[in-house]
Structures are given as C-alpha cells and as structure tokens.
Amino acid sequence: MKYAISSTQPTDFVAEDEAPVAARPERRSVVSEREILNSLGEVIYEWSIVDDALYWGGNATDVLLIKDIGEIASGRKYAALLDPENMSSPYDAVVYSSEKDTGGGVAYQLQYRLLPKGRGNSPQLWIEDTGRWFAGADGRPVKAHGAIRIINERYEQEQRLAFLSRYDELTGQFNRARFVEILNETMENAKRFNTSSGLMIAAIDNLSVINDCYGYEIADEVIAVAARRLKSRLRGGDAIGRYSGNKFGIMLYNCGDDDITVAARRLIEAMRSEVVNTAAGPVAASVTIGGVIIPRYAQSPAEATARALDSLDQAKRQRRGSYVVFRPSKAREEERRRNIEVSREVVSGLKKQLFRFAYQPIVDAVSGTVKYHECLLRLDRSDGTTAPAESFIPLIEKLGLNRMIDQRAMELALADLAESPEAKLSVNLTSATASNPDWLSYLAAQLRPNSGVAERLTVEITETMALHDIDAARHFIETLKDLGCRVAIDDFGAGYTSFRNLKLFDIDMVKIDGSFIKRLHESPEDQVFVRTLIELAKTFDIETVAEWVGDERTVDILRGWGIDLLQGHYCGAAHMQKPWQATASE
C-alpha cells in the first residue's frame, strides 16, 4: 500500500490501489492513521536532497506544533528550527555520513532538540529521528525517508538517570562514586605533577538526634543546607560530594598543611554561624572534620580515606564542631598494625576453630559451692599463646565480626551443655548480636532438639545494650525466657543507669560491675551504690553477683549485705580445663 505525502497539504495519508471491500479484513476501529501517529507522537517524512524539498505526513503540524507546513517544507527551513547547541543534525547524519549505500540504503538515527517557536520560547521538543538515506549513481545521498518521534518524557528520564549517576539527588553535589573517582584522579595528578591536595571528611553532628526529634524530612533539610553552606565556602575549583548519610567528602586542590587548617575552620564556622531554618523551625547543626594532605601522608585513595576518617574519629572524641588534620604518629601506626594483626588472627581463628573457653566459677556467697561457670572466650594464636577476649572483642565490634564470634561462642557452650548434664554455664553476648532477631531464631533452632539444655544456660547482656533500645531488649529477654534460659545483666552500674530500670526487664540476675567491687572496702561511694543495689534487687527478687572479688575482706562486706553470688580470683580463677572433666578425673 502506498501513501501520498505532501509538503503543502497537511491531510491524512490516502491509500492508493486499495483492495475491493469484500477482500478487506473486518475493521474493529474507525481510528485513522493520523490519530494513531498523533497518539504516538510520530510523523513520517521524505527528503529530496537534490532540491532540498521536504515532504511530510499529513499530521506533521499536529506533532511538531507548527501552524503552516510551509515552515518546514525544505531541509534548510527545518534546520532553522533546530537548537544551535545540538550535537548533530539530519544534514550531518546524511550528507556527511561515512557509510556507503550498497543498494538497500544506509540507516541513521539521532536525537536533537526542535524549537517550533524559536529559541528561548516554549515548547521545546526532543526528537528521535530514525531513517534511511539512498545514494544516486555517484554514491552521494539523493533522498532520505524516515520517522520522527517526540521523546520528551524519555529524554527527561535519561537525563535524570545520567544526573544520578554522578550527583546526589538530595544535595545536588557529587555522589560517592563520582567523588571517589575525583579522589583517584587527584591522587594520580598530585603524584605526576608533584603537587599536594587536601582530602577532608566533614560529618554533620548528632544527625540521628535530629532524626529522632524532628523526623527524616527535617534531617534531609539539614543535610541539603549543610551541603550548600559548605560548598559556598570552597574555592571555585574545589569539589564536594556526599560521602555517606551524614558525611561529605571535600577535595581541596593545591592545598598544604596550613591551607587545610584554614579551610577546616572556615567550614566549621559556616555551619556554626547560624541555625538551619527548616519546616519544623530553626535547628542548630554543626560539623566535625577530619583531613589529610595527599600524597604526602597517604599514597593511595584507600589510605587517604582511612586516614581522613581516623582523623574525623579523633576530632569527635575531642568535641563536636572541631577538626583534626592527620599527622604521622608512631603510636597510632603501631596500633593500626596491631589491629590488622588481631583482625587476621580472629578471622583465621574462626576458620580454623581456634576459639575455646576458659571457665570461671560463680560461687554461693554463703556456702562457697560452685553454682555455675562463666564461659570466657579465648583464642589460640599461631605462636602458641592464648589471647583473652578483652584483647580482641573491642576491635571485632568495630569490624563487625562480633556476630560470628558470638555464634561460635554459643556453639561451644551448647556443645558443652549437651556433653555434660552437670554443666551449668553463662555466655556473654555483644550488643550487635543481642539486637539481631535472626540470632534468636538461630538459638531457638539449636535449643529445641536438646531437651534440658536451655534451663542450664544463662545469657549475659550488658546494661548499655539493654538500655540502648528498651523495647528491643525486652523482646530479646522475653524470648530467651520463653526458650527456658536465664538472663543476666552484666557490668551493671558501668552505665550509671537509674536503679528503677531494673524493673523494666524480667531478668534473673544482676552482675555488679567489678569497678565498684575492686576497692569496695576503701570507697564509701561504692559501698553506698553496691548496698543499695543489693537491697533493691532483693525487692524485685533478682539474684545479685559481685564481680572482681579479690579478697576476704570484700567477701565479708558483701555477705553482710546479702549478696547472693561471688565471682573473682579469690573465689576461683578461670581454667581452660572443663570443670566436669576435672571432677571426673578426681
């Protein structure tokens, strides 16, 4: 079927040589081709390149939003409506094509912007132009035909995706991926041209508090304002990107030790000088900054980032709204080396099952008989020595390995309890494990097949963990109790919490932090605390355990106050041998 197209009469296509009515398939719609093409935002054309005549489908004026088809009756007139900033044009795609027509024509496709009402006026149409040109005897293009489609919505989506590939949507600054690229480029250039630059990580202080008080929408407003303020205090060539939720990466080019210090002060003042006006009212916000000069004090992007973050942590320990610029420190490097060594030992210990327990007795304060044993985790090192838990637990919590360690500890404890019906054990859990609902499911699955094990197991959680999220802690404790386990709050008093918090939890035992017991006989303040706690615990029918008991004088004082259980070197040191095996051998 052939269609007649005209450059002067914008009418519907007229079919020539149509089949007899009886031979046509039944039509279910009376929608014209013009309506169909209009709904798709498409129009077809034929371009006679020899005389520059441009012939359009009958719906051209509808799709291209022009009044008179004569405005686009030639390639030159059509080109006059194209945005001068277009990267290409139909003329370029056809006339300057490097392809050769071997008989079937040469396909082309391009995108450009059409300005039907002229530059600076609306509407502006993004066009996808798909066609095929044909050559004459001399191999040069003589005609082309194709279809134009309006793709404004698709173009906007493509532009948005392109923007998000490089920029953070909330702040409009570089996203993390692009900022890391900038850091890599800066490091390479600094080494190549023997220059120095400054990398800073700026963190908005207490953003979690703003979230809790005002909601995430207000916190987002604070983040966006912080980005603008920090950006406004940078030099023209410097870069800023959103590194993570509350952190910004800042790259200062051609920057030395003095420059980075001046810049840090300027950025801190930018946030501190005035409040952030939000939909919820004015909110005070500050930033803390860590920085490093590269490549002087960092030879790789990873090392630069690590040292900037370390400096940020140091600044936070000083006070909010301060800054620290990295300087070499033998003590810090030795600590870093040791941390790497310990982390490797821990990972290796998990793989090779080198963790085991030392068992310390908890004894009855009156009779001195052993009531149960606390399992103290130990790690067998490659050099033949054994590392106590306190030498690696703080580090593994930072590295996020504590859940694996806790799972291994529980596996060992459950195996011991299954091995000996006489064993009664307690196991410590870190806060990350205690707040993980998946761990409860794991423990339940381990306890159900082993009848009688749960009632001989005490799970110890810290006071800090219990009060960090009271609702989560109560659910955790209730689940453990439902499984048949006993629950103890360890290191009670270290967090200086109110005694009234004891009644919030259905616990079986309170272990009084050893720092209050160590010098009990010579500290009136500690005596008041411990005695009051023992009396209160009795009111709630909660057992009390005194940790770090080191001498008979302390034992006598605690017995006089009614302490239930004692733990410490005076009552029995921790031993690697399993107590029930030692009893059997005797």
Description:
By secondary structure, the protein is of the alpha/beta class. 39% of the residues lie in helices and 22% in strands. The strands form 5 sheets. It has an 8-stranded mixed barrel with strand order 15-16-18-19-20-21-22-23, surrounded by 4 helices. Strands 4-3-7-6-5 form a 5-stranded antiparallel β-sheet. Strands 9-10-8-13-14 form a 5-stranded mixed β-sheet, with helices on both faces. α7 packs across α8 and α15 runs parallel beside α17 (470-483). The chain is elongated and about 115 Å long.
CATH architecture of the largest domain: Alpha-Beta Barrel
User: Please, how many domains?
Assistant: 3
Chain oligomer state: single chain
End-to-end separation in angstroms reads 105 Å
Strand content: 15-25%
Mean pLDDT: 87
Work out the helicity level.
25-40%
Strand ordering within the main sheet: 15-16-18-19-20-21-22-23
Tell me, what's the shape?
A: elongated
What is the CATH level 1 assignment of the largest domain?
A: Alpha Beta
> Can you count the beta strands?
23
Q: Which regions have little confidence, pLDDT < 50, spanning 5+ residues?
A: 1-24
What is the CATH topology descriptor of the largest domain? Answer: TIM Barrel
Q: What's the Cα radius of gyration?
A: 38 Å
